[in-house]
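Re: the request from the purification team.
They wanted to know what the chain is likely to look like in 3D before they choose a buffer screen. I agreed to run a prediction and write the result into the notebook, where they can find it.
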Amino acid sequence: MTQTNSPQHLLDHDITESAKLLHEGHMHRLGIANTMQLAHSYNKLKFQKQDAYRIDQYQHHLDALLAENGAITTPTIHLNDGWHIDTSMSLPFLDEVLEDSEKIISERAGKGKPAIGTYRSYFQDMWTPEDLVRYPSFLNFVTSSTILSTVSHYIKSIPVLSSTLPSGIRFVESSAEYDDQPEKFKDSQLFHVDYYSLPNVYVLVLLRDTTIENGPWSFLPKSVTVKAVEALNNWQYGVPYRFSDEQVYSVVDKSNLIELCYPRGTVLFIESSGCMHYGSRNAVKPRYKLMIGYSGLCRTDFSEGFMRQKVYPVRPEDSKLRKMLLDKNFIG
C-alpha cells in the first residue's frame, strides 16, 4: 500500500500552488527575506538527509573527492570580498569551451528579433539540452576539480548545479538590437542581489572580448553591497527587488562599481547572493557569456516546487563528486 501520510508526502502536499503564490512578483507577498527564511526551512526539512551527507563529505572527504574527480593543476582560487576575476586562461577545459562556443555563436547568434513583450528581450539564452551531450567540454569545465574546490569551500558544502533559477548553464547573447524598450533600464539591467540560494556562486566566462559597448556584467563588492542593502532595506517587506542607479549611488559611491570589461576567456567567480549587480545595458555590440549557477542543496526559494527542473546527464563512470553536483539526491 502506498504511504500517504509520510513526512515527505505531507511536505509536498499542495506545495506547487503555494510555491507559485509565494514566489510571484519576486516574493512580494511575504517579503523576500521572510520568504527566503521560510523556503530555506522547508528545504532543510525536505532534504535533511542529503544535506547532512553533503556537509559530511565536504568536511571529511573533500580531498579524496577532488582527487578522484581530477587533479587540481592551477593555483587555488579564493573569492575575496565575494568575487575573483581569473585572466590566466589556464582553467581546465577552458580552451575547449571557447572553441565549442564559437560553433554555437556562429550557428545561433543574431537569428531574429524576439516578439514584442518577450521577457528580457535584450537577453537571449542560446543553450539547448542537447548541448550537454553534443559539447561535453561544458560539463567537463563545470565539474572540474579546480572550480568545484573553489565553490565547495565558499559554500562550505558540496554544491549542486542549479536546475531551476537561474539555469545551471546559460549561453547568453545580449544585444540592444533585441531590446523592445530601449528607452529605460528594467529587470536584470537594474541593481539587485539574487535570492535563490544563500550563498551561491556564479562562474561567468566571457566568450568574446567585452568592452563597455557590449553591456558588461557589473557589480559591487560584497562589503560595499552590505552598506547598500542596509541603507535601502533590500529584501525587506514592501521593498522592490531591484533598484535604480540613483537609489544605489545615493548610499554608496559609484567608484566602487566593477565592470567586467575583459578579454575573451576571462572568468569571474562571484557570490551573486552577496554582491549587488546588473548587466546587459546598452549592448550596442552583442555580448556573449557563459553563466554557470552553483547553489547549496537547500535553496532559499520555492522554485523547485513549481518549475520543471533541468536534468543533467550522469554516467556510471562519473566521479562521485561529479554525480553529487549533477544530481542533488545522490547519496553514494
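For the purification team: The radius of gyration is 20 Å.
Please add any questions underneath this entry.
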